[in-house]
Every structure is written in structure tokens, then in C-alpha cells.
Amino acid sequence: MKVKLFSIDNPFGKKGKNQLDFENEINEWLEKNPSIKVISTNESTSWGSSDHHKWFISVWYEEGT
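User: That's the sequence. What structure does it adopt?
Assistant: C-alpha cells below.
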């Protein structure tokens, strides 16, 4: 099993544009890797100062044939 970690700073900034960019990044990775089988996904956040937030998505997967 392998893991791919995605992260973004200030996910709620730019009136939702950061979220859309983040979704696009994950979806593009999935499209470029059609042979993987996603086993699990997890989300976590880090809330630092009022100006710095970080959002993490981990995708646990197996490579298919």
C-alpha cells in the first residue's frame, strides 16, 4: 500500500477558489493514475495563527495492473 499526500495553505481563502484548485489538483492526479485503487482517504487540518491554515488530504492506494 502507498500513500499520496496533498496539502494546501489557506484552503478557505480567495472566496472558495483555493478549494476548487485543491479539488482540481487531486482529480488531475487521479486521472493521470487510472490504474490505482483508492483504499482510504483522510483529511486533517492545521490551524496556526489567524492568517495561516493548512489542509491535508491523504490518499491511501494500491497500484493495479
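The first strand starts at residue 2 and ends at 9.
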